[in-house]
Amino acid sequence: MEIWLRTNRRALLFGMIPPGLLAAVGMLLVCGLPGREPPTAVRAIGGVLLVVSLAIIAALAWHIRKPRLAYHKRHVLVWLRPGGPIRVPLEVVECFLLGQTSSFLPGGDERNVETSALIMRLAPKAEEWQHLDVKPQLGAWCQGQVIIRGTWCEPLSVPLVNRLNQRLYDVSREKAAT
Predict the structure, then answer these.
(1) Domain match, 87 and 60 both
(2) How far is residue 13's CA from residue 60's CA, in Å, rounded to a whole number?
(3) pTM of the entire structure?
């Protein structure tokens, strides 16, 4: 698998801070202070905190490994919902564009904040690919356009979009040659 667009690692690493602090508190409750043995109930609470915190950290670490876009065996793989990727046939993808969209960050007025977005344009004749349900915080998929919110992927730029379009052109040409 060739990764084309990575997830926002900084946001996920930042998200590991609260569960990391909870894990430290849990460890402190399990081990106790030097020279003082904690009661069994306190150890049990600390153990639960530690296990839950480590599970959250492991889940976030798993998401760091998942890209937003990749290429594999004549398909563009898109991760915009839980589970495995959406496998879009290469011949359906026309190009990539740079745009803007709402950030979908939590909070009242924050929802109106805009962020950069990567737009993957799909062929209009591929009707089955015109609309799919995806996680709104990660992007949107409607009217033959796949919108990947810049909030949850690596920083977007014109050189990145140019590189994606060049790579799309290269793999399309390789496919046509075979």
Answers:
(1) no
(2) 8
(3) 0.76
